Structure formats: C-alpha cells, structure tokens
Amino acid sequence: MIAYTATVDFLGVLVLLLAFVIIAENYTHSLVRHLQWQSLILSLLISIIGYFAGMWELIALGILTLVFRGLILPEILLKDIKKEGVWEHREFGAKAKSTLTAGIISSLIAILFYPVIYRDTGTWDAMIPFVLLILGVITMISRKNAIAQISGYVVEENALLYLGVVLFPMGFLLEVGVVLDIIGAVFLAVLLGAEKEYGPMEVEELSG
C-alpha cells in the first residue's frame, strides 16, 4: 500500500511539473512533446489507480487517455507542425519568464486556497490536480497561437480527469473522458480545416 501511494504521488508530481514546463515553453514543437509526456504519465497514473481499486472503467479511461491524448492527438499536431514548417521552431508571443511567473503565483494562491476545499472533500489528494487545473487555465489565456490553445485545452482535460479520479472514482468518468476527447477532436478538426484553407493561424484569425 505504501508503494502504491508513493507511486501515485510520484506520477502526480511529474504531471504537475510537466504543466510548469508546458506553461513556460515558447516553442511549438517542444510544447506538443511535453504535452504528450504529461498525457502518457497521467494515463499510467489513472490505470494504476483503476487496477488497485478493481475498477475496469478507470483502466479503460487510462487506455483512452493513452491512445487519444498520449498518442493520436500529439502525433496529428506534430504532423501538422512538420507540414507547416513555419511552426517547427516558431516562438509564441507569450514570453516564458512572465508566463511561468504567472503560473507560479497562481499555483501558490491555489495551494493557499486549498484548505477551504479540503474542508469539503476531506482529502489532500486533490491538491495537485486542483493546481493543474489552474495552470491549464493560465496556459490557455496566455497563448494566442491556435496549436497552443489546443495544448492548453488538453492540460485542462488532464486536470479534470485527474481531479475526477481522485475525488469521484466512479464509472461515469469514462463517459466524461469520451465526451472531452470528442470536444477536443472537434476543436482539432476545426483548426486543421482552417489551416488547410488559410495556412498557419493565430486564435484571433480563427475567431475573426
């Protein structure tokens, strides 16, 4: 049991650290790779929790996370980046230092606020996914690049599933994961369709 807890905590810390790496990354190709590793580690974490809880639904959710967010979506983004050479090493508008600073400050505020949530949940296990949720929001609002926006959305997906697995380890999370992946697939299809017609785009160009 101690080994199980230590493993889950270690993987959770890795997921959180990768969120800080993602939020500080200024280059498109590297950001997608970091996102891929975060999703792969989260899929392992969810599967381990499901195995020890004896819940096949969580194991299936871990496999879904592995296949879609850990393999399919990153590879599609990387293929798009390779096709559109302008993205290969393109720097985002948001500077790493200021974005990382905002992420650290927001995380500290979230940690200070968490005791309020603890009174309702009775567990400290949700603190990491709660901070991860905040970092996902920062990633989305700090990036104007369309691919980075998708990456921010995936970080939010990962945070929500992580939070759900910790607080509500029930079968319905598999359905939630499927719905989130469908939304992500639609978002990706819209982006790729727009880029096919207009070329590499920023968020303002998608909304304008």
Overview of the molecule:
By secondary structure, the chain is mainly alpha-helical. It has one domain (2-207). It is 83% helix and 0% strand. The chain contains 8 helices and no strands. The chain has helices at 2-24, 28-53, 56-83, 96-121, 127-142, 146-167, 172-198, 203-207. The radius of gyration is 17 Å and the shape is globular.
Q: Looking at the structure, what is the overall shape?
A: globular
Number of strands: 0
Order of helices and strands: HHHHHHHH
Share of residues in strands: under 5%
Mean of residue pLDDT values: 81
Reported for the largest beta sheet, the result is: none
Q: How helix-rich are the residues, as a percent range?
A: over 70%
**Model regions low in confidence, pLDDT < 50 over at least 5 residues:** 203-208
How do you describe this structure in short?
It contains eight helices and no strands. The chain is an all-alpha fold and 208 residues long.
